[in-house]
Automatic annotation (TrEMBL):
Name of the protein in question: Nucleoside hydrolase
Domain Inosine/uridine-preferring nucleoside hydrolase residues, every copy: 6-301
GO BP annotation list: purine nucleoside catabolic process
Signal peptide interval: none
Coiled coil: none
Organism in which the protein naturally occurs: Spirosoma terrae
Entry's Gene Ontology cellular component terms: cytosol
GO molecular function annotations of the record: purine nucleosidase activity
Matching Pfam families: IU_nuc_hydro
Keywords tagged on the record: Glycosidase, Hydrolase
Length: 309
């Protein structure tokens, strides 16, 4: 029996790569994809999602539009990237998506797909958690339908990646965008696995990896993913701008969980400046699981193998 999966992403390059990766997994049945307008503008990201589903012959997977906007906006240069992606040679001539305003709202899609599921559902979040929290606030009893939530978010024993005004740098962006929802999600004490910067810091996008991927360019997905990753290397070479395999690492947990080191901890989420969105260890906090390490070479090899198609 394949695992039923709902995915909510926020249109970043690694979010779209994560959607592709999910679609290569034989044991996963994707039952819905919703988009949060955090690291993207919504309409182009819905378009990218639709195109990737088409490319993988899965355009019947329903999409949901997240109309809720978080508290702390992402930089606009990051948000604009899906426009470039939709123009890549492998995607530009695929049929246009339906009117993006015709899609079900993201919380409703999550509610519909959870209520109609016959089995418990795994939820993958590669952006902020607002849509899921909105859905669970509306229909709290659906918490029982959740097998596990895998969320790329947080920074526990390492610094964050938010560098902006009125902030001390301790938060990770997916939590910072909507700290209130993050605080709520953690407080539910559902089976929640966070993939924080503590572990994603181990997996930067490297030229070595891209060079290995380029040797298999005759495979359509190696070609496309190589182009997507190349777009992430346009930035200034400092930690703040290094592009990591944040969401892809979280996604790969669905297929290779045994390669991760997991710890159960108690955490709290700050909702106020100067550390809004900081996730910190606290004995009086809520119980969550966090990944702290991964078999890095196994992970890169896994990606190379999955994209050989
Ligand atoms: O904080 C990591 C999250 C991931 O979900 N995102 C990017 C991934 O999709 C925000 C982010 C942090 N640094 C970034 C980000 C950067 N340099 N470019 C784009 N997004
Ligand atoms: Ca993301």
């Amino acid at each position: 029996m394949p695992k039923q999966l709902l995915m909510d992403h926020d249109g970043g390059i690694d979010d779209l790569l994560s959607l592709l990766l999910v679609l290569t997994m034989p044991d996963i049945q994707l039952t819905g994809v919703s988009v949060t307008p955090a690291d993207c503008y919504l309409e182009p990201a819905l378009e990218s999602s639709y195109k990737l589903l088409q490319l993988m012959d899965q355009e019947s997977v329903p999409l949901g539009r997240g109309d809720y906007n978080g508290i702390n906006a992402f930089p606009s240069e990051w948000r604009a990237r899906p426009e470039i992606i939709n123009a890549l040679p492998l995607l530009i001539n695929l049929p246009q998506s339906p009117d993006p305003y015709s899609y079900t709202s993201a919380p409703d899609l999550i509610i519909n797909q959870l209520s109609s599921a016959t089995d418990k559902v795994t939820i993958l979040l590669t952006g902020p958690c607002s849509n899921l929290v909105l859905a669970l606030e509306k229909e709290p009893e659906l918490k029982e339908k959740i097998e596990e939530i895998v969320w790329m978010a947080g920074a526990l024993r390492v610094g964050g990646n938010v560098q902006t005004f009125q902030h001390d740098g301790s938060a990770e962006w997916n939590v910072f965008w909507d700290p209130i929802s993050a605080q709520k999600l953690v407080s539910y004490e559902l089976p929640l696995l966070m993939i924080p910067l503590d572990v994603t810091n181990h997996v930067p996008v490297t030229k070595k990896f891209l060079s290995a991927l380029a040797t298999q360019i005759d495979y359509k997905l190696s070609n496309l993913t190589g182009q997507l990753w190349a777009l992430t290397l346009d930035t200034i070479p400092s930690y703040h701008y290094t592009y990591f395999m944040w969401d892809i690492l979280a996604t790969s947990y669905l297929a290779i969980p045994e390669q991760f080191t997991i710890e159960t901890v108690k955490v709290k989420v700050s909702t106020r400046p100067p550390n809004a969105g900081q996730t910190y260890l606290d004995e009086t906090g809520y119980v969550v699981r966090i990944a702290t390490d991964v078999n890095v070479s196994y992970f890169y090899e896994y990606l190379l193998a999955q994209f050989k198609r």
